[in-house]
Amino acid sequence: MNRRLLIIVLVAALAVSVGLNIRHAVTYRGHVAESAQSEKQLWTCGMDPQVVMDHPGTCPICGMKLVLMRSGGQATQPGGEITIDPTVAQNIGVRTAAVERRDLHRKIVTTGTVAADESRLRLVNLKFGGWIEKLYVNRTGQSVRKGEPLLDIYSPELVTAEQEYLLAAKAHGTGAVSTSSTLLQTAREKLLNWGLTNEQIEQLGRAGSVPRTTTIFSPASGIVIETNVIEGGSVMPGMDLMRIADLSEVWILAQLYEYDIPWVKTGLAATIALPYETSREYHATVGYIYPYLNPDTRTVTARLVCPNPDLVLKPDMYVEVEIASEPQAGVLAVPREAVVRSGRRDVVFVEKGEGKFEPREVRVGIEADGYLFEILAGLKESERVVTSAQFLLDSESQLQEALKKLNAGVAPAAVEKPVTATTPVQSQEKSVAKPESAKRHPAEGAIMQALFTADQLYWCPMHPDVVSPDGDASCPICSMALVRIPPSELKALRESDPHGCVMDPIVVAGRDKDKKCPICEMKLKPIERPAQDTKD
User: Fold this and answer.
1) What's the start-to-end Cα distance of the chain, in Å?
2) CA–CA distance, 79 with 350 (Å, rounded to integer)
3) DSSP reduced 3-state for 48
4) Domain 127-238 class?
5) Of 528 and 536, which is predicted with more confidence?
6) Which end of the chain is more exposed for a tag (fewer CB within 10 A), N or C?
7) Can you tell me the distance from the alpha carbon of 284 to that of 252, in angstroms, rounded to the nearest whole number?
8) pLDDT, tens digit (0-9, with 9 covering 90-100), for 470-520
9) 3-class SS at 269?
10) CATH code at 96-105+329-388
11) How far apart are CA 522 and CA 504, in angstroms?
C-alpha cells in the first residue's frame, strides 16, 4: 500500500514539474509571433531587441530582464518615438551630446611632389643651322647665369648675314648708296631676329671683319636639366639644344581627396616638410586648384608655390603637405558618432526626456576636425542627440514600426510571419510566399514542431547536428543533400534533452550541453517541447 502511494506521489510530482516547465516560445532574428497580434502586451530585451515575448521574463540570449514594449495593442510611442527604461539605457551605455554652433576647421594633411615652375623654364634653340665648335656647358645639372656663354657655333648662313651687315655699314659710312641707311637697318634686324645681341652686332661693326664662329649666351639663370648637343655635332634650325630651369621657386603638386576639396581655396597658407627632415619647414601658398580629377587616384591636384632659395627641394621629390583651411564660423554641428549613415539617409536620435528618443532624418554637410559633422537641416540648437548605442535604438525603432504595421493588419515587406512552438505549421500558409532561402534554412518554429511531431526528419551525413523537416534542403555547412534520419536515432534524440542554436535553429544536438554550433560557434540552448507534446 505504501509502495502504491509512493508511485502516485512521484507521478503527480512529475506532472507538476512538466506543467511548470511549459513556457511560451521566443522568436529570434526579427520574427514576431502571430499570436502576438492578439496579445495586449509585449516584452523585449534592451540588449537584444530582436527578442520579443508575450510574457515577462528574462532574455534567453543575455539573461537581462525583459522590459514592457507595448500596451493595449498599440505602439508604445506614436510618430516613431521609442521608450527605453533608464536602467536599460544605462546598461547599454546610452550617452548624449548637445547640438551646438561651433567654428569648424580642418587641417588637410597629404603628400605632394616637387616640380619645376613651368613659368621659369627656358629652352635654348637656334633659328639657323650649323656645327658646334665648342661647348662651355656640357653636362646636365650645371648651374648657369643669364648672359654666360653656352657654346660657339659655325654657321655659313650666319657668316653670310654678318658680311651683308658689314657691307651695308661700309656703304652707309661713305654715302655711296642713297638707300644705304635702309639696307643697314634691314641687315641689323636680320641678325637680331636670329638671336645675336646688340653687343655682338656693335662688336662686329667695330672689328670690321666677320669671325668664323659665333657665341650663344644663356637666356636665363638656373640649372641645366637637359642637353642634346655635343662638340662637333651639327644642329638644325629650331632644334632644342638645352633646357634650363630656375629652381629658386618651385611648385608642390599636392593630392587632395574629394572630401577635402571644399576646404581648400587659392591663397591659403601651407607648410611643407621633408619626410626625412621633419624639423625643418617650408612655407608655401596655394596658387591653383586643377579643375579635373585623376581617374586612377580619385584625387584633385592643388598647385602650391614654394620659395626654394637653397635648392633643397628638388623636382620629383616627395614631401609632406599640411594646409590650414579657413574656419567655418557659427556652424550647427554634432559629433560624428551621433549620425547613423545608411547610404540613402542620415539619422540621429534626439533625446525627448523621460527615456524617450525620437529618430530624426538630418542633412549632413562637411566633416571637420574633432570628429564633427555640419548639420544643414533637421536639428535645432540646444537639442540633445544620442552619441552611443544608437544602432540598438535604430533596431528598436525599426522593430516597433514593423510591429505597428503588423498590429494594424499590414504585413511589412521586411518582416516575415514566423511560426512559433505554439502555432501549428499549417498556419504559415496564410502568410506571404516563402523566400527561396526558406528551403535551405527552415523557420525555428517549424523545426521545433517537427522535432517532436513529424513522422520523419532529415539530417546531414557529414554534420549530424543539422536537422530539418524538409527533405529537399541541403546542409548550410557542406551543401550536401540531407538524408532521412534513422528511426532509432530520431527516437533517441526525442527522448533526450535536445539543444539547439539560437542564431541557426537548423542545428539540433542531443544532451551535450557544452557543445557549440558548427556554424556560428555559439553555445547551444535547451529546446522546449511544444505544449501539445506534453502529457499529464
Assistant:
1) 23
2) 13
3) coil
4) mainly beta
5) 528
6) N
7) 8
8) 777 788 888 788 888 888 888 887 778 788 887 777 788 776 667 788 887
9) strand
10) 2.40.420.20
11) 9
Find, among 232, 276, 272, the residue nearest to 131 by Cα: 232
H-assigned helices in 273-428: 390-407
On the 0-12 / 13-18 / 19+ scale of CB atoms within 10 A, 453 is: middle
Cα 504 to chain centroid distance, Å, stands at: 32
pLDDT for 74 equals: 32
Residues 6+ apart with CB under 8 A from 285: 267, 268, 269, 270, 304, 305, 306
CA-based nearest residue to 268, from 255, 254, 287: 287
Percent of the chain with pLDDT over 90: 23
Question: pLDDT per residue over 83-125, tens digit each?
Answer: 777 777 777 778 888 888 888 888 889 999 999 999 999 999 9
H or E stretch including 283?
Answer: strand 277-289
Residue 464 predicted with pLDDT over 60: yes
Q: Whole-angstrom Cα distance, residue 277 to residue 435?
A: 62
Neighbours of 371 (CB within 10 A): 10
Sheet holding 234-235, edge to edge: 214-217, 149-154, 130-135, 234-235
3-class DSSP state for residue 422?
A: coil
Kind of pairing between the strands at 508-509 and 318-324? unpaired
Amino acid at 175: G
- Three-class SS state of 432: coil
pLDDT grade, residue 169 (50/70/90)? confident
The interaxial angle of helices 198-207 and 156-174, nearest 10 deg, is 60
**Which CATH number applies to 107-117+247-326?**
2.40.30.170
pTM of the model: 0.51
Q: Which residue, 210, 90, 102, 230, is CA-closest to 160? A: 210
Q: Mean pLDDT, to the nearest integer, of 354-378?
A: 83
Decide: 271 and 282 in contact? Cβ < 8 Å.
Answer: yes
- How many CB atoms are located within 10 Å of the residue 498 CB? 20
Spans of all domains in the chain: 96-105+329-388, 107-117+247-326, 127-238, 422-536
Q: Rounded to whole angstroms, how far apart are CA atoms 17 and 27?
A: 24
List alpha helices for 242-281, DSSP H.
Answer: none
Q: CA angle, corner 83, sides to 56 and 76, nearest 5?
A: 70
User: What is the chain's alpha carbon radius of gyration, rounded to the nearest angstrom?
Assistant: 44
Q: How far is CA 254 from the centre of its chain?
A: 20
Closest CA to 426 of 22, 34, 50, 51: 34
Helix (H) or strand (E) holding 246: none
